[in-house]
Amino acid sequence: MMQHCMKNITPDSLTGAIFAVEGIRDACVVLNGPTGCKLYHSAVSDGQYSRCLSFDPLEFAEEFYFGQPRIPATYLDGYDYVYGSGEKLIRVLKSISSKDYGLIAVINSPGAALIGDDLPQILKQTLLAAPCFAIENTGYSGSFAEGYQNALDKIFEALPANSTQTVKKSVNLLGFHIYQKHFEYNLKTIKKMLALCGIRVITSPCAGDTAEKITHRAEAELNVVIYPEYGERAAKQMQKQYGIPYIIPTQGAPIGFEAAENFILEVCKKLNAESSRALEELDKVRARAYLFLARYSSLLGLPKGALYSICADSSTAYALTKWLSTYLGMIPSAVVVTNGTEGIFAKKLRTFLKDIGYGEAMNNPIATSPAHIVFADGNTLAQMRLAGQRVGGVEVSLPSLGYMDVMPKTFFGGEGVLFLLEQILNGLRFLE
Amino acid sequence: MAEIALYGKGGIGKSTISANISAALAQRGKRILQIGCDPKHDSTRLLLHGELIETVLSYMKRTPPDQYRLHDVVYEGVYGIHCVEAGGPEPGVGCAGRGILTTFEMLERLHIKDYCYDSIIYDVLGDVVCGGFAVPLRREYADRVYIITSGEFMSIYAANNILRGLKNYDTEKSRAGGLIFNARGIADEQENIKRFSEAVGLPVLMQFPRSDLFTNSEKENRCLVEKYPDTDIAADFLDLANTITNQSILYQAKPLPDEILEQKVLNAKVFRGAAAKTVDFSVAEKEGKKQNNIIYSKNLISREPLSGCAFSGAMSICAQVQDAICVAHGPVSCAHITYQSITSLGRKMLLERGLVLPASVAPAVVSSEMRESMMIFGGTEELRRKIIEVKKQKPKVIFVLTTCPSGIIGDDVGMVLNLEDDCTKIIPILTDGNIQGDYLQGILMAYQEIAHNLVDKNVEAEEYTVNIIAEKTVATATHPSFNFVKEVLDTLGIAINCRYLYKTDSNAIKNLMRGKLNLLAYEDYMGRAVKKFLQEEYGALFMDMAFPVGVSQSAEWVRWLGRFFSRSDEAERIVARQEERYWDEIKRIRPILQGKKLMIITYSHQIDWILKTAIDLKMEISFIGVLNYSQDDLFQTEFTTEIKELNIEYDIRNRKKDIARMQPDILLSNYSNTDLTGSFFTDTIPLCPQAGFLSGLSLAGRWGEFFRMNLKEGWKDDAALYEKYNA
């Protein structure tokens, strides 16, 4: 059927820039653009990082909000494209100036970027009390990562570090954003692991910290880049500006036991911190996993030999692939990297798959390659159903099918292993 | 470092003057960078002795961004002057203003200003036609601005426009340096310039006469100051360069209103609106020549802020044609947003009901992925390539939908129509993002364009067939409502010919006229507009009612169908069976809800299905507030006498006050809200209710259970805890 040939259309640099700022707890993105660009981003931002209790649009009835809590917009129309958006922009900025935001970012939509309104000048004119900046062009059809990193540069410019006094045994965690599945609890899990090692997290920009907290970033002794596709540029910039060294854990995001242990050991080594408590906790989880795997395997012979497919960012895909194949003995069917094939973990992933004899998995179409368990976004999982595949699906990226995760979930550390294992073992049971 | 912008109307000689100023400064040992900001890219030609250099934009087009280097675009001219040309698209395509923005962004990214220039000269095209050409006026670029003009009408007119542009940017500081008079030797030239200079309060810094020396030096591709260094004109350029770089007093931009400019400065006679007559087209109109037969959305007609964009609305409809591919001509972001909006229903239906809806799970949408260079040079070539690529999948139709950027730069999408062949029809839908209107306008455009291009008017109607018209593509009620309708139609022995436009294909659309009767899904603004269009242009026969919601409407609807298709007996049997179920349930819950006060605040304009059930339950309808809604504007009810207080165009600011005044037992709205306190029960009305006899009862049943059990929602007492731990 023709539709199966179509690829998912994933977010680009506009969305990357907007969600970088929306991930700051007390920041506000003002979108200089039409409501068509605003409504989607506001809905996703609110869904991923909820900061209000109601969907009631009447709660957000004021001009520029269009019944949503996030991302006021100048609702540009054909007239504004001809005559400019300055007047509306000044009005929206004045209307939000009393809302006590810690950071305000004006971001042009693709159309607004063409008309060349002087956003910095308008920001200057409106004399906002909060730190503010403008992104006149987020890049047309750029990658999500480009938009995110460009916005992060601007965020750091607008929020200069207020102290460079190093706090011993402390880190910043880089690369998180709100368009990651379970970002909040992934972050909490890492913080818990590091706390067991006596390591404090100063900030994790764009993933729930306030603007003020981001100004403490220069106090960190080390930057830990969890997702290099989003965080490495910031790490390099902080190394240059403040002399803070950084690491990218060699096993990628702490998904699976080996990667989690490696993560702890590498960070602790850099900071001369004590890793034993965190490793012991992981051992306890290993023991629990062993019980379930042994019983499951004795009854069904699985999960060894079950086919899996993955569609995710490279740092997630690499760690997940390694764990599934080296710890559970599962077989890769299709592994799709959504953020380009040139990043360090995309390259490591290719090498790893080649080494275990499944190099072709990165070229296989995910919708039609046979699999038992699929780790992907909701669209991909739905398309596999459309293609007639009956698979167990685990959402590791967005958009979601819409299941509400009331119980916090994580992919990271011991808790993440147990969550994924539960999904795999139960998912395989329902297959014919 | 001085940053100097020289503006002037095209062809006025500003490049010649800019180059001579640069040369004059460089002769005195100054380090100069000249940036030409004109798509015809000849600003630095004289400085480079006639050599044409690669422009920044052409370089960016062929080079990956990580390989951008200054040495590829900065050329050395006479006296060591550094020369850069922005370049731009061919006339008539792309967006030259965007090109200037892009050039400046790149030069800034490569830190060109770190190279210790004494002066940067920006040579900028014409009057300030758009924000792109105004970039050098921005604070971080030019710190002084000079206007080159002759004494001709249009040149002074352009000079005044440049001052307007400058005034927009100069709210605190003055940057106008003065006028440079490049004489053309026409009558009254001196006087015109004098009057203009006095009226805008700017000095004429230098006057250059019309001279063969310019022509002769340009013939040899030399600046005058280089070719004839010992002439008076060369000396004037040295003086001017000296004045400009040392000028300490700058002036405020004070442009003149057009009328004063034309009357007082240019001595032109102006007549405003007195004698001009409009043209009478009434005869042509009587002959049937329609001027404006487009159907417009409520947003456009009411001149309200646009809700969503026409591009996305049109795409949501086109994606329902399952043997078509939609090409979104624009940047990926536009396609991404729309794609996610369409697939949101597919994901939801899979999760909640296990249903796989092909058009919502894998809509055939691709993006032409417009990049920066396409914004500047135009994107039709890339669009052609994309269409050739998708044609390989042999779709019956390719829809080309345009976004804001492609609309703004004026891409001519018609240029891809010659790719059409016997296998694939190409249908452009020129939504231009939201330039043509809101989401609903896009839906209406798609309905019309698809009909005009695909429906065969000559197909004969067949007995016992119906079309279903204007279902909602992103509503969860669409599927169950269709099931209800289909079940009734199956019982009556009536076939469905085409769902226009939901889960259909080009062949079904072509044969739309085969359907004898058309059944409208919703009688809202969109439904009414599509119905009117099909009636007027295709003579389509419609049932008087839309899909029925609630017991009364459903009974009437089924009976109407029975009469129309001579199947009244079967219809009566359906009604009797369903009404019996309805009344049994009403009798069961009436004792619980009788006398309860119902208050409704809603966007929904059709709520009789709820009111009828409430009345049958002998509840009191104490208050209805109807809110302004982008998708509808016609509130209708049969029950005006039963409603105690009805407020059309309800002001939401009165909500809390009215709730306190009415003291309802049940508050119905489209969204519930924890902020509304009181002892009432709250429930939500779906914006798109499900068709069928029992729709109202499914709501009332819930209220009945709630009041029967006298249930409490204990979680509502935990607001303080939420504030403590989460907020």
TrEMBL record, chain B:
The Nitrogenase/oxidoreductase component domain covers 309-703
Q: Which reaction does it catalyse?
A: N2 + 8 reduced [2Fe-2S]-[ferredoxin] + 16 ATP + 16 H2O = H2 + 8 oxidized [2Fe-2S]-[ferredoxin] + 2 NH4(+) + 16 ADP + 16 phosphate + 6 H(+)
What is this enzyme's class at the first EC digit? Answer: oxidoreductase
What does the record give as cofactor?
[4Fe-4S] cluster
UniProt keyword list: 4Fe-4S, ATP-binding, Iron, Iron-sulfur, Metal-binding, Nucleotide-binding, Oxidoreductase
Q: Does the keyword Nucleotide-binding apply?
A: yes
Per the UniProt record, which EC number(s) apply here?
A: 1.18.6.1
**What family classification does the UniProt entry report for this protein?**
Belongs to the NifH/BchL/ChlL family.
Role noted for this protein: The key enzymatic reactions in nitrogen fixation are catalyzed by the nitrogenase complex, which has 2 components: the iron protein and the molybdenum-iron protein.
The name on file for this protein is: nitrogenase
- Can you name the source organism? Christensenella tenuis
